[in-house]
Structures are given as C-alpha cells and as structure tokens.
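Note to self: keep these together.
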Amino acid sequence: MAKTLFVDRLLDRIEAVGAPVCVGLDPVVDRLPAWATGSADAERVSAFCRGVIDRTAEVAAAFKPQSACFERLGSAGFRALEETVAHARAAGVPVVYDAKRGDIGSTADHYAAAALALGVDAITINAYMGPSTVQPYLDAGLGVFVLVRTSNPDSGVLQSQPLAEGGVVGDAMAGLTRSLGESSLGAHGMSDVGAVVGLTKASKAAHLRELMPRQVFLVPGYGAQGGSAADLKPLLAHESTPGRGVLVNASRSVIYANDVADAAEWMRDDLAGAVA
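Structure:
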C-alpha cells in the first residue's frame, strides 16, 4: 500500500485543528524559561521543546525545528533534536525539518537519508544548484519546501534581481518549484513540493500564487517579524483546499510567550479567521 504523501497528511492535519498553525522550535539557551530544566544546555533545550510540544500539540498543524539551534550544541544538541522530533511524532503532528539543505544530487542523497532516519516528514531546501538538489528528498518520500521569496529584509539583494527574459530570480525559482512539483500531486490537488514565501513579501504574493497554484506556501514572518493574518489573503490557494494552501510559522511569539498554550490558541483563532 502506497504511503500517503506528506502534503495530504499536512492538509488533513490543518483541517483537523482548524488553522494552518506551524510552531517553530527555535530554542535559544539564554531565553529558556525556568521550567526547562536539565544539567546541561542540550538537556534544557530538549526539555523546553518537548514542553512546547505538549502545550501546543492540540492546535499545531506542524512543528518546525530549526536545525541550527540544535547543531550549535554539538552531538548533545543533535540528541536533543532527535528527542524533539520523536516527541512531536508521538503527538501525531507532522514535522518540517528547517535545515535549508542545498547540495548536489549525490550529496543530497546522504542528507535525504539522514532526514529520513531522523523521522521528519518534510525539509526546507535551497535549490540554487538546480533540480538535482531537490529530487533525492522526494525519492526518499519526504515533502520539501523550496526557498523562493524569503522574509529576511535583505533577501531582495538576490531574489529581486531582474532576468534578461523578464521577471526576477525569485520568479525563476518559483517556476522551478512548480515544475518539480507536477509529478508529486496529492489527493487534495496540492504538491509535495512546497515553497517558502515570506509574509513580509505581501506585495509579491498574488504574483507568486499565480506562478505556483499547487504549492503549499510555508510562510515565515507572522508575529514577531511583523506579518499579520490579514496579509495572508493574496497567498491563499483555491478555496476548496483545506487550509487554503498555506502553513504559517511563528516561533518567538509563541514559544517564548508567558503562556505558550494561550499564544498558540490565539494564533490558531487568528489564522482561522483569515482562511475561513
């Protein structure tokens, strides 16, 4: 029996919780609350992430651990990442591995195998080196989110550079993402190849949705970065798609809130109104 595609599991989860809430797990040791206990930094990080998962699992459509926050702590940090992923999976919530891999096909094979062994459902990809950067992850059965128009303020230095044939570099990456996703369509009509599109790039949103009608947009920039639910409208896909084709990430505004559960529930309600 064929395994259900990540995109369908994700969209079913979004429909079940009522909103496209992605809780970003970006643990910074200096910001960990007192309840995140442990004898070493990595143990505290693991306790913190597992605590956030416990407090938000009922409303989270996905969790997105930021690899760098764990890797900086060495092998103990990677163990904390493994524990975090396992805890999220035990809660029945899909995991998007925010690793932003981007190497040639033969190396990507190894990265894909590592991600699969970690137990994640999807991974973020920098596809600057071409289609072979992405394909090994799809072959491994993972969903992918290709960086297209990111939320960082200086992203336009490259992504907004004009092309000789018209459009900009970000448009070319959108075209590549759409092409790669055509053979990986799920039951809901959306692709296992999604796109990272920042909420702070709202002026480009409608154009990017036109270029990528079947991509789920992983949307950073909500909350602490200044984006709001009202900014989502041009990013939404066809109205019949569960969750309307977006997965909206928030990290700091949720995980460091005084009441993590309340912050996640507020986000769920805020987003539900925007995609209703």
